[in-house]
User: Which sequence fits this backbone?
């Protein structure tokens, strides 16, 4: 059961940060964004933006796609909903 709990901890930790919540809200509004546009929008260092985006992606909140050298991010609605539904079924019932 520890592995399942780790997934939920990772998911909620990714969302337990004001900057990451703002990134998620921005992605919801814009559907998909180039990583550097996110960086510029929040005046974050490239390394900080990369860290936030990687945490969100590893937690199943966002997904990315490459187009040449550019990386675009969007909300991974299927993964997000799947983790939430599983959490609700296993933990909250």
Assistant:
């Amino acid at each position: 059961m520890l592995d399942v709990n780790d997934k939920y901890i990772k998911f909620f930790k990714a969302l337990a940060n004001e900057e990451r919540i703002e990134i998620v809200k921005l992605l919801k509004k814009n559907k998909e964004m180039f990583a550097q546009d996110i960086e510029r929008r929040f005046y974050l260092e490239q390394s900080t933006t990369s860290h936030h985006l990687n945490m969100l992606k590893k937690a199943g909140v966002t997904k990315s796609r490459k187009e040449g050298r550019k990386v675009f991010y969007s909300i991974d609605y299927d993964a997000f909903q799947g983790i939430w539904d599983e959490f609700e079924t296993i933990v909250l019932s």
User: Anything to note?
Assistant: The chain has a mean pLDDT of 91. Strands lie at 32-34, 62-67, 70-75.
